[in-house]
């Protein structure tokens, strides 16, 4: 079990792992805090992207006091392989660390094994962390872990709908269906994803910047890559100063688009396209999570929030599991995932 000081250290490790300056992509975000045998803070470190020191090595380098008998609190199991850097498990052992608290096991078959190496060396390894901190550690690298399992990015699709399922009015106007709270949440979502993806129609009609902004309208320090996909004439996305990279995917196939994004090292896609793009990804089985911002308003006409899925009978319906419901006054947020069983 963790002491109160150790829990505080894990919270800090999670906080620094999520540093907005750290690029998203093919590497996990990891934080590490070192405590003396008496529970005094010694040093902290975090991984800053491919090719940089791992969190444990970063913390060890920053420590100025002796580390014999110290505790390392890490958000992800220390690695046991030689890549661009040496094994973190070995570095902790060599430094004299006697206790390691791990919030989450490493699912990467190449890097795993650090826990066993630590225990073999006589280090006390603790995995029983509070559930909410373990959940935060899992949330930190959702896209990275999904990529390891499925060899494609995690896809979160976002829809803004009226109560009668409309995405826009009959004349095509859609700003704004939802209120300020829901729109602010979309900007926050963009900071947690590697890439925001829209279709050619949205790029042409709306010319969206797809940037992540704070409540005061300034750009957030973490900006997503921005992409549009289609096989016809796909206009370039506007690129205001400070926006993330923008490019076009010349395909209408969701699987091909995701393969291209994965090849670029992008691991979490936020799908913000219109009804046609969302339907294409659903038909292809390429949506892992659906966020619906539901506005308490009616239009009675206008384009639906989702294009034709090719379903002609109730037996073929696409069922979703409702994961969460949260108020975003005056709107409601539904979090759903396609049912796999």
UniProtKB/TrEMBL annotation:
The keyword NADP applies. PROSITE patterns: CYT_DCMP_DEAMINASES_1, CYT_DCMP_DEAMINASES_2. SUPFAM superfamilies: Cytidine deaminase-like, Dihydrofolate reductase-like. GO terms for molecular function: 5-amino-6-(5-phosphoribosylamino)uracil reductase activity; diaminohydroxyphosphoribosylaminopyrimidine deaminase activity. Binds 1 zinc ion. Pathway: Cofactor biosynthesis; riboflavin biosynthesis; 5-amino-6-(D-ribitylamino)uracil from GTP: step 3/4; Cofactor biosynthesis; riboflavin biosynthesis; 5-amino-6-(D-ribitylamino)uracil from GTP: step 2/4. It catalyses: 2,5-diamino-6-hydroxy-4-(5-phosphoribosylamino)-pyrimidine + H2O + H(+) = 5-amino-6-(5-phospho-D-ribosylamino)uracil + NH4(+); 5-amino-6-(5-phospho-D-ribitylamino)uracil + NADP(+) = 5-amino-6-(5-phospho-D-ribosylamino)uracil + NADPH + H(+). Residues 4-126 form the CMP/dCMP-type deaminase domain. Its cofactor is Zn(2+). Its EC number is 3.5.4.26, 1.1.1.193. InterPro entries: APOBEC/CMP_deaminase_Zn-bd, CMP_dCMP_dom, Cytidine_deaminase-like, DHFR-like_dom_sf, Eubact_RibD, RibDG_C, Riboflavin_Biosynth_HTPR. Keywords: Hydrolase, Metal-binding, Multifunctional enzyme, NADP, Oxidoreductase, Riboflavin biosynthesis, Zinc. In the N-terminal section; belongs to the cytidine and deoxycytidylate deaminase family. Converts 2,5-diamino-6-(ribosylamino)-4(3h)-pyrimidinone 5'-phosphate into 5-amino-6-(ribosylamino)-2,4(1h,3h)-pyrimidinedione 5'-phosphate. NCBIfam families: eubact_ribD. This is Riboflavin biosynthesis protein RibD. It comes from Brachybacterium sacelli.
């Amino acid at each position: 079990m963790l002491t109160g000081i150790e829990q505080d250290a894990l919270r800090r490790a999670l906080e620094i792992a999520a540093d907005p300056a750290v690029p998203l992509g093919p590497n996990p975000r990891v934080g590490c805090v070192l405590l003396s045998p008496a529970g005094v803070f010694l040093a902290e470190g975090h991984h800053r992207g491919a090719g940089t020191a791992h969190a444990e090595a970063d913390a060890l380098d920053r420590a100025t006091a002796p580390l014999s008998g110290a505790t390392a609190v890490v958000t992800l199991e220390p690695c046991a392989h030689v890549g661009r850097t040496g094994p973190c498990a070995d570095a902790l052992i060599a430094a004299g660390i006697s206790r390691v608290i791990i919030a989450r096991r490493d699912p990467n078959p190449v890097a795993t094994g650090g826990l066993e190496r630590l225990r073999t060396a006589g280090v006390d390894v603790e995995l029983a962390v509070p559930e909410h901190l373990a959940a935060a550690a899992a949330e930190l690298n959702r896209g990275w872990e999904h990529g390891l399992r499925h060899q494609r990015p995690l896809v979160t699709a976002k829809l803004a709908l009226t109560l009668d399922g409309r995405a826009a009015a009959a004349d095509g106007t859609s700003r704004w269906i939802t209120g300020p709270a829901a729109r602010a949440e979309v900007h926050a979502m963009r900071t947690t994803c590697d890439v925001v993806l829209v279709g050619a129609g949205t790029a042409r009609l709306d010319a969206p910047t797809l940037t992540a902004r704070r409540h005061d309208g300034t750009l957030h320090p973490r900006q997503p890559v921005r992409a549009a996909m289609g096989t016809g004439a796909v206009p370039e996305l506007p690129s205001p100063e400070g926006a993330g990279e923008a490019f076009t995917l010349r395909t209408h196939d969701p699987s091909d688009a995701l393969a291209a994004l994965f090849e670029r090292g992008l691991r979490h896609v936020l799908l913000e396209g219109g009804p046609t793009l969302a339907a294409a990804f659903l038909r292809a089985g390429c949506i892992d999570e659906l966020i619906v911002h539901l506005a308490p308003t009616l239009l009675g006409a206008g384009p639906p929030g989702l294009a034709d899925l090719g379903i002609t009978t109730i037996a073929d319906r696409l069922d979703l599991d409702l994961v969460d419901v949260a108020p975003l006054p005056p709107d409601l947020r539904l979090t759903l995932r396609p049912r796999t069983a």
